[in-house]
Amino acid sequence: MEYDEPPYDRVWVIDTCTAAELLPHMLIRFRLGYPDPLIFGDGDQAEGAIVPIELLRALDTRTFDGAPHPARLSDPSLPSTRPANLA
Fold first, then answer.
1. Pair 56, 49: CB distance under 8 Å
2. Domain tally for the chain?
3. DSSP track, 12-60
4. In principle, which of 38, 40, 56, 75 could form an S-S bond with 50, CB 3.0–4.6 Å?
5. Residue 2 lies in a domain
6. Nearest Cα to 49, choosing from 22, 79, 67?
7. Which range marks the domain in which residue 70 is found?
């Protein structure tokens, strides 16, 4: 019998309510040096991720006063972070 290895792009997706409960634990893990993200969404669809700030800084090439700034709302090239009904 041949074993089919799952694709590497598969991730564990945590439902949003559980992700909220896990936030304090994730902070402890990040402080201990574990870089694994918390990926959450509805069903099996990944919609967001919580990552250590060091990883965000490594991924974010934008800068603001020499420090990475993940959400410059005044930058028109960035998508709005506000829900459409609040924009």
1. no
2. 1
3. --EEHHHHHHHHHHHHHHHHTT----EEEEETTEEEEEE--HHHHHHH-
4. 38
5. no
6. 22
7. 10-79
* pTM, rounded to two decimals: 0.58
Burial class, 41, CB count within 10 angstroms (exposed 0-12 / middle 13-18 / buried 19+): middle
Contact 77, 67 (CB under 8 A): no
- Looking at the chain, how many residues does it have? 87
**Cβ-contact 75, 68 below 8 angstroms:** no
**pLDDT digit string, tens, across residues 7-60:** 556 778 999 999 999 999 999 999 999 999 999 998 888 999 999 998 888 887
Give the pLDDT of residue 70. Answer: 55
Q: What are the backbone dihedrals phi and psi of residue 40, each rounded to the nearest 5 degrees, phi first?
A: -135, 165
- The residue whose two tokens read 């918390």 is 38
Structure tokens given for 49: 């991720």
